[in-house]
Design goal:
GO terms for molecular function: carbohydrate binding; peptide-N4-(N-acetyl-beta-glucosaminyl)asparagine amidase activity. It is a single chain. The chain is of the alpha+beta class and 740 residues long. Among the domains are: 273 residues, Beta-galactosidase, Chain A, domain 5; 212 residues, GH92 mannosidase fold, CATH 3.30.2080.10. 28% of the residues lie in helices and 23% in strands.
Length: 740
């Protein structure tokens, strides 16, 4: 009896410890609903659910409104905060992109009265969906919980890099049977499945299968195949369906309207299910599942492991502002979003599917291979932020781009999975490479000869994939002729920027004369500048301009009209309350505009950068589900918020940062795996004290204000745990740059 009492007591203590562990998770204040709302051009398009940092498996609910009317632009990542129903839980998602792709291997638990009831569910579109309420959701990094009101089931999710772990707890209802539906042919984007298969193996307690889909981007290179292995403890009653018709006891089915179901024993009220995915093979999915769950550890153990990864990452970032707790929440949330992409592409044991369609093993000097690089977006903020705080990861991303070149032959624009998509324009991989090299953060494994060769090719030749527009004609005219390509002006400006970045790399490689040629090409944007209108305009082969009324005006930064026009740009943009449609003036959700607020620094009016940057932090990024001004685009908007709230911002492709107005009293960032710290102390900061009086760097006046250099000021030294300290002194009175 005594031994039994002791056992009960120990179990009670264990339960308390587990409860304490989960109720006191030491995450900083967060609002992970940010970016899940907004309409039209203002939709953040972020998925809600679970993943490991940078993980390929992004598991979460795909939702719909009460009337089940699909609004595609609001559901590019599956979840929308305004919705009332969960259609299904799928295992991969785009991350804040303005296009739909991925979203496959759909699973949902249900309760049924009979097989006839189940037949009715699957015979119509989203017939098994369930109502839900935000009040019964729990959203944390690495953990998601929701109660399905229709089916009376509590759903819990966690995820490793390629494994999703589900735990379902069914309410006990008389005469109800506990069922799991596996919609193996499901895709978030309708009608893109081209092949699907599922097989039930009751002896080994697993389901295996695949789906091939041609999504909006993946369809441009022949589509993607996702393989899966699902395991759970009880597989005694099951069946399949095809085109809405159930076949009880059947173990295998093919087709893009097919699926499988599992009926649990009535007495089993809780089940844990493991879903391993792979882009290589079913066997690799099984390997991922085994290795990444340590041979099927419990849900609670896996949750602890995954959430500890997030805690370790988030512990490197500390901010505080007693006068603006919302700013702390928004910053921490932006960090989570930034740490969620790009996508780790290598799987357990380092294998991955290459751009040549073959299976490869990652090099030993890389921690991971990455894909889903929304380069047109992320070259501005997200990748410079990764280079700033995690140079190892920044190197892996550039090595991944060079792997694209090695296996596929060309530099990519927007690589997804293992393919070239041709999405967007420019060749901004040039800028990503320049950013790492100009900051002198590139490692010794980056072969500059191979880099230079790839840059020469993209700038001067037609590539088989992701080519610039007709390089020979561009070089002949020194601009893109309007009568040959309607996007004449933006393409010319983009290529000039890219060539400037190439020049930086050439210079770093010691190719000084060649660098001069590309620096000259970097000025070709001037050829689409119309002196009569002071606008950048399309220009035809004969040299005639075709200026619409809304082209970008170009003024010398030291022309007083530059400041006046840029001020009007912001002042007239502020009253624009909706993000549904583009703002005709400053549009914070448009990547083209992200750098605009920093341009005042070049006109010696850094006070206006500080004024409008602080306004944008408070108004364009609220602490709310619609807290992003547009698609996050794989961390682009989140990284903009992070940099701006820290008080400095990158000139991408260079080692330069521009100073703004920090939103906190104290900021501390542990960089490069703890190699050094950046400590920012902000004195006399407040909502009204938003102007910078002066800045100290390591207790000495920053003589380069309003600019900071990564190499001279921010680069980690060889001393372990070295600290770089910035002190901002704030005031309610503007101080012009020349006075500092």
């Amino acid at each position: 009896m005594a031994a039994r009492c002791i056992l009960v007591f120990l179990l009670f203590i264990l339960a308390i410890n587990l409860s304490y562990q989960y109720n006191n998770t030491k995450f900083p204040p967060l609002n992970l609903y940010i970016g899940t709302d907004g309409d039209g051009f203002g939709a953040g398009s972020l998925p809600l659910g679970v993943q490991s940092p940078y993980g390929a498996l992004r598991l979460g609910p795909d939702t719909s409104n009460t009337m089940d009317i699909p609004i595609i632009f609001n559901h590019l990542a599956g979840y929308h905060y305004s919705d009332s129903h969960i259609n299904i839980f799928s295992h991969t998602h785009m991350f804040g992109a303005g296009v739909v792709d991925y979203g496959e291997v759909g699973i949902i638990p249900v309760q049924i009265d009979s097989i006839k009831h189940l037949q009715a569910m699957i015979s119509k579109r989203n017939g098994y969906r369930s109502a839900f309420q935000h009040e019964r959701e729990v959203v944390e990094p690495g953990y998601y919980q929701v109660y399905l009101d229709t089916h009376k089931i509590n759903v819990e999710l966690t995820a490793t890099e390629q494994v999703g772990i589900h735990r379902y707890t069914y309410d006990k209802i008389k005469n109800k049977h506990h069922v799991i539906l596996i919609d193996n042919s499901y895709t978030l984007q309708a009608n893109v499945c081209t092949e699907s298969h599922i097989k039930i193996d009751s002896i080994n307690h697993e389901l295996t299968g695949l789906i091939h889909f041609d999504g909006s981007l993946s369809g441009r290179f022949g589509g993607v195949t996702t393989y899966f292995v699902i395991t759970l403890s009880n597989l005694t009653q099951f069946g399949t369906w095809n085109h809405g018709q159930i076949t009880e006891g059947q173990t295998e089915i093919d087709g893009c309207s097919s699926g499988a179901y599992i009926i649990l024993p009535d007495e089993q009220e809780q089940v844990t299910m493991y879903v391993g995915i792979s882009f290589v093979s079913i066997e690799q999915a099984r390997t991922n599942l085994k290795i990444q769950t340590n041979t099927l550890q419990s849900f609670d153990s896996m949750r602890t492991i995954v959430q500890q990864k997030w805690l370790d990452e988030l512990a490197r970032f500390e901010v505080s502002a007693d006068w603006d707790r919302d700013a702390e929440i928004k910053f921490n949330t932006a960090i989570v979003h930034s740490l969620s992409s790009p996508t780790i592409w290598d799987e357990s044991n380092g294998v991955y599917l290459g751009y040549d369609g073959k299976v490869h093993t990652k090099p030993d000097y890389m921690q991971h291979v990455y894909t889903d690089l929304s380069i047109w977006d992320i070259h501005r903020t997200q990748i410079p932020f990764i280079n700033f705080h995690d140079a190892q990861r920044g190197n892996d991303i550039i090595h991944s781009i060079m792997i694209n070149v090695e296996q596929g032959g060309d530099l990519p624009k927007w690589p997804l999975a293992n393919g070239y998509t041709g999405c967007m324009f420019g060749s901004h991989a040039d800028v990503l490479i320049s950013d790492l090299i100009m900051k002198k953060e590139n490692d010794n494994n980056l072969d500059l000869k191979e880099v230079v060769q790839a840059l020469r090719k993209v700038a001067n030749q037609n590539q088989a994939h992701d080519s610039r527009w007709d390089p020979a004609t561009y070089i002949q005219y020194k601009y893109v002729p309007y009568d040959m390509e309607k996007t004449s002006a933006p393409l010319t400006i983009s290529y000039a920027y890219d060539d400037w970045a190439i020049a930086n790399v050439m210079n770093a490689a010691g190719l000084v004369d060649e660098a001069k040629e590309y620096y000259e090409r970097g000025t070709w944007f001037e050829h689409v500048f119309d002196n009569k209108t002071n606008f950048f305009c399309p220009k035809d082969k004969a040299g005639n301009f075709h200026c619409p009324s809304n082209e970008l005006e170009f003024l010398d930064p030291f022309d007083k009209r530059y400041i006046e026009e840029l001020t009007i740009f912001f002042e007239r943009g502020q009253p624009w309350k909706t993000t549904l449609l583009p703002n005709p003036y400053y549009w914070p959700g448009n990547e083209h505009n992200l750098f605009s607020v920093w341009q005042f620094n070049y006109a010696n009016r850094s006070d206006l950068t500080q004024k409008y940057a602080r306004w944008l932090l408070n108004h364009a990024y609220p602490n709310a589900p619609d807290g992003l001004p547009g698609n996050d685009d794989y961390g682009t908007m989140s990284a903009w918020y992070i940099f701006t709230s820290m008080g400095f911002y990158p000139l991408s492709g260079s080692s330069t940062y521009l100073i703004g107005s920090p939103a906190f009293d104290r900021i501390k960032i542990s960089r490069n795996n703890g190699k050094c710290n950046l400590l920012i102390n902000v004195h006399n900061n407040s909502p009204t004290n938003l102007y910078v009086q002066r800045v100290l760097l390591n207790n000495e006046t920053l003589s380069t204000f309003p600019f900071i250099d990564h190499i001279n000021h921010f680069k980690c030294s060889n001393d372990n745990q070295s600290t770089i300290q910035l002190d901002f002194f704030m005031s309610s009175t503007p101080v012009f740059s020349l006075d500092k």
